[in-house]
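Homework help board

Subject: predicted structure for assignment chain

Our instructor gave us this sequence and asked us to write out the predicted structure in token form, then describe one feature. I got the tokens but I'm not sure how to describe them. Can anyone check?
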Amino acid sequence: MKRIILVYGLIAGAITGGMLMISMPLHEKGILNMDSGMVLGYTTMVIALSLVFVGVKNYRDNHRSGSISFLTGLKIGLLITLVASVLYALSWEIAYNTIAGDFMQQMNEKSIEKMKLKGVPEVELQAARIEMEEFNALYRNPLIRFVMTLMEILPVGLLISLVSASLLRNPKFLPAHSPAP
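My token output:
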């Protein structure tokens, strides 16, 4: 079980972390904006965390004779998610401290621009700026930033783990194929 968790978790984490490292320079060059970057990020998370399903199925078929309980499937899925999430958060820490540049400032400026386009009054814009500065001060703390980054990916993995465990507890769902005689 440990091997499956580590292999699938590390692969999923490498995919999400790798896409992060690829997308940050694209963001810096203006090729990706905040919205498309967010869509790309969450799409990558879903694709990478589909390995939760593969890992649970692998364990069910190769180590449990084609049968797995919901709780065992969920446990494996969550542990794969945890490994992938930690790798993703570590990747963000590396990116944030090396290639992200003034990411937070750019994100704040884009948010203010959107608010201006919506016609938000100046008083509310000023309040938003103050709130953003308070958040930025909090975000400078590496531990808080790490936990916040985990909170981006963990809910996605939780959902995929729940779905995977629910589907794969049924031994008739995508049964393991035995070789033809």
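Reply (TA_rk): Your tokens look well-formed. For the description, you could write something like this. The chain has six helices and no strands. That's the kind of observation they're looking for.
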